[in-house]
Amino acid sequence: MYNYVVFDVETPNRFNNRMSAIGISVIENGVITEEFYSLVNPEAPFDRFNTMLTGISEESVIDSPDFAALWQRIEPLMNRGILVAHNATFDLSVLKSCLTAYEIDWKPYAHYLCTVQVGRRHLPNIRHRLNDLCDYYGISLDHHHAGSDSHACAEILLNYIKEDAPVDKYIRTYKFK
């Protein structure tokens, strides 16, 4: 069994190139072993839509670290396994944009898994929005809170594994450079 780093980001505006929050849940040997959540000062303007969706505003992140400062804390977590997200290409693209904007040199690529892609094949007859899967599995969710979303996604992945879904078959490579 692989180790997984399940993460979710919230963004401040329609450009989706900065994050205003990140949640990380680390799965090792089939158990969630560590969780992390932080607001992030995106050093970018907020759109009303994003603030209404996430509850995060310019005022709420004023004393939060920017991505460069936060990266010092989360890089060791992000290196602990295969990256996982619900609609993974979105979260990975935001991560890549932040790394690029702050001129942070990370690895050229990472292996990742998308729980939407696995779910569409494993459970073809239900909807695959995060809240629908949480309802299906009885997982508590405070939707659009990055910490809750990453935890829920980790629980969904653990359910897929427990149900013998062939998750290894859906591991892909994301290029950061």
Main attributes of the structure:
177 residues, alpha/beta, 6 strands, 6-stranded mixed β-sheet, 37% helix
What do these coordinates show?
This protein has 177 residues and is α/β, with parallel strands linked by helices. Helices cover 37% and strands 21% of the residues. The chain is built from six helices and six strands. The chain has helices at residues 48-54, 67-78, 88-101, 115-122, 130-137, 146-162, and strands at residues 4-10, 21-28, 31-39, 82-85, 109-114, 172-175. It has a six-stranded mixed β-sheet with strand order 3-2-1-4-5-6, with helices on both faces. The model has no long low-confidence stretch (mean pLDDT 97).
Q: State the share of residues found in helices, binned by percent.
A: 25-40%
Helix count, DSSP H or I runs of 4 or more residues: 6
Q: What's the rounded overall pLDDT mean?
A: 97
**Secondary-structure-derived class:** alpha/beta
Along the chain, the helix and strand elements come as EEEHHEHEHHHE
Termini separation (Å)?
28 Å
Shape assignment: globular
Number of distinct beta strands = 6
- Biggest sheet, in brief? 6 strands, mixed
| Rg calc | 16 Å
Outline the low-pLDDT stretches.
none
Report strand order across the widest sheet. 3-2-1-4-5-6
Q: What is the beta-strand fraction?
A: 15-25%
Annotate the secondary structure layout:
Blueprint: E1 4-10, E2 21-28, E3 31-39, H1 48-54, H2 67-78, E4 82-85, H3 88-101, E5 109-114, H4 115-122, H5 130-137, H6 146-162, E6 172-175
Parallel strand pairs: 1-4, 4-5
Antiparallel strand pairs: 1-2, 2-3, 5-6
